């Protein structure tokens, strides 16, 4: 019997303020890279709750989720794992400068689209794709996501 292929379900949050994207500078493979606030969805957690939690844990920012940007699929060449990323759109509410950030997080950064386009330190191609899709006006209502308890 063949082993069943199982993608990893993740969330990411696009948060824009003053034409700058909230990014996470983090260590990956010993190098500092930029990513949207992102991470795995935990058992029993909704997609929206995961995005709110991951954004807080990685940046110290409290956000309100306002929409869905899209679903992105990426197979990482380093480990062969396929990630299904639900990218949600969030609005920055307030920042907790005393928030304890996840291990490996250097800190939050606000970057312009030009800085993202020029960066050689993006964690994956999804980072720029999501930012470009946001700028293009992609935005779906949250009720497009149906989650059964």
Along the chain, the helix and strand elements come as EEEEHEEEHH
Counting helices, strands and paired strands, the structural category is alpha+beta
- What is the residue-mean pLDDT, rounded to a whole number? 95
Count of separate DSSP helical elements: 3
Fraction of helical residues: 10-25%
Radius of gyration: 15 Å
**Poorly predicted segments:** none
Percentage of residues in DSSP E strands: 35-45%
Overall 3D shape: globular
- Seen as an oligomer or otherwise, the chain set is single chain
Describe the sheet with the most strands: 7 strands, mixed
State the end-to-end distance: 31 Å
Number of strands: 7
Summary of the model, kept short:
With 149 residues, the chain is of the alpha+beta class. The protein is built from 3 helices and 7 strands, in the order ββββαβββαα.
Secondary structure topology:
Elements: E1 8-17, E2 20-28, E3 31-35, E4 38-40, H1 47-59, E5 61-75, E6 82-95, E7 105-111, H2 113-118, H3 125-135
Parallel strand pairs: 1-6
Antiparallel strand pairs: 1-2, 1-4, 2-3, 2-7, 5-6
Describe the structure.
20% of the residues lie in helices and 42% in strands. With 149 residues, it is an alpha+beta fold. Strands 1, 2, 3, 4, 5, 6 and 7 form a 7-stranded mixed beta sheet that branches. The termini are far apart.
């Amino acid at each position: 019997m063949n082993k069943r292929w199982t993608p990893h379900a993740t969330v990411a949050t696009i948060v824009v303020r003053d034409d700058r994207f909230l990014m996470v500078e983090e260590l990956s493979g010993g190098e500092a890279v930029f990513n949207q606030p992102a991470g795995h969805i935990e058992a029993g957690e909704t997609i929206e709750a995961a995005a709110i939690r991951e954004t807080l844990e990685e940046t110290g920012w409290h956000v309100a989720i306002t929409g869905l940007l899209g679903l992105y699929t990426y197979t990482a060449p380093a480990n062969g794992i396929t990630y299904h990323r639900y990218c949600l759109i969030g609005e920055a509410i307030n920042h907790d400068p005393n928030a304890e950030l996840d291990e490996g997080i250097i800190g939050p950064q606000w970057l312009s689209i030009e800085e993202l386009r020029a960066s050689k330190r993006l964690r994956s191609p999804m980072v720029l794709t999501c930012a470009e899709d946001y700028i293009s006006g992609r935005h779906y209502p949250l009720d497009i996501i149906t989650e059964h308890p």
